[in-house]
Amino acid sequence: MTYSPATRPTFYFIGVTTGQSSIMKIFPVWAEYLGLGDVEIKGIDFPPQDTAENYREAVDFLKNDPLSLGALVTTHKLDLFEACKDMFDVIDPHATLMAETSCISKRDGKLICHAKDPISSGLSLDGFLPKDHFADTGAELFSIGAGGSTIALSWHLMQESRGENRPKRIVVSNWSQPRLDHIREIHESLGSDIPIEYRLAATAQDNDDILASMAAGSVVINATGLGKDAPGSPLSDAAPFPKNAIIWELNYRGNLVFLDQANAAKTALCLQVEDGWTYFIYGWTQVIAEVFNIEIPVAGDRFNAISEIATKVAGR
């Protein structure tokens, strides 16, 4: 890929299909509301699990181009970190623990690697979970996909500060054994007493079988990228969702088959079905605050105004 030096302050979005994201329309309006000045946003697209050389080329460009301010990273969070960790001057504690890069910023001449998902995913999840859901129901967590989002979400739900309001069991599935081994290492470093299973799932039927074992009220998450970065769903159309389950599709755009499958069973099984819109807003505002060194609240009138801008611009 050829990188041209930025001619004005530029914020980057490193993903797979960045041009299709609502952020391309939302960011300029947010920038005006937040008083960011004459800034622009540009996408950098890589196929999932691209080469280390390509990730390093992008980070080298960001590091050395004066008007390139930083980036939000999706899909490539784990792979970019592994390829580029020696290129950062500072790596924040969450990024070190989770071995991922979801935000790149610059401060005082230093290139900084951040993991913002533990904050943004936690805010999103707690925003729609009923109060004391796990404590009251004995529910479990099934996260399909062992990438950065599952690492962050499971970390959030495993915190001892949550007391009894934690999943009674966590199941993580993935088609790649190395990804499962990676998340197992991170979980083991936390020393949690929650039982955790790591299941290799090569097919939708494999995930259906796991789903059938989950307790009523469980939280089931599509953290695979299927529906956005690639077509399809990690479940079959016959997926046996648990009764009273909370189903979360982390994506908000694309052909969201997983979301359609959950909505089809919603009434019969009393499901609570959520998409990734609030996750999108929290994820972007956390990174924008870091890159531009400003404060963006996570609640209240100002946050509500930011959310309303995004909803209006995206036509939701």
Keywords:
alpha/beta, 316 residues, six-stranded mixed beta sheet, 41% helix, 12 helices, Rossmann fold
Which of globular, elongated, flat, extended, rod-shaped describes the shape? globular
CATH topology of the largest domain: Rossmann fold
Distance between the terminal alpha carbons, to the nearest Å? 34 Å
What structural class results from the helix and strand content?
A: alpha/beta
Architecture of the largest domain, CATH level 2? 3-Layer(aba) Sandwich
Q: In what order do the strands lie side by side in the largest sheet?
A: 2-1-3-5-6-4
Report the top-level CATH class of the largest domain.
Alpha Beta
The H-level CATH homologous superfamily of the largest domain, spelled out, is NAD(P)-binding Rossmann-like Domain
Question: Stretches where pLDDT falls below 50 for ≥5 residues?
Answer: none
Average predicted confidence as pLDDT: 97
Strand content: 15-25%
Largest sheet: 6 strands, mixed
Helix fraction, binned, reads 40-55%
Radius of gyration: 19 Å
Mind explaining what this structure looks like?
This protein is α/β, with parallel strands linked by helices and 316 residues long. It folds into two domains: 10-115 and 278-314, Rossmann fold, CATH 3.40.50.10860; 119-275, NAD(P)-binding Rossmann-like Domain (Rossmann fold, 3-Layer(aba) Sandwich). The protein contains twelve helices and twelve strands. It has helices at residues 23-34, 52-64, 77-84, 93-98, 117-128, 133-137, 148-158, 177-190, 204-211, 257-269, 277-291, 301-314, and strands at 10-15, 40-45, 68-73, 90-91, 103-107, 110-114, 141-144, 170-174, 196-200, 219-222, 246-249, 272-274. Strands 2-1-3-5-6-4 form a six-stranded mixed beta sheet, sandwiched between helices. Helix 1 packs antiparallel against helix 12 (301-314), helix 5 packs across helix 7 and helix 5 (117-128) runs antiparallel to helix 11 (277-291). The relative contact order is 0.13. The mean pLDDT is 97.
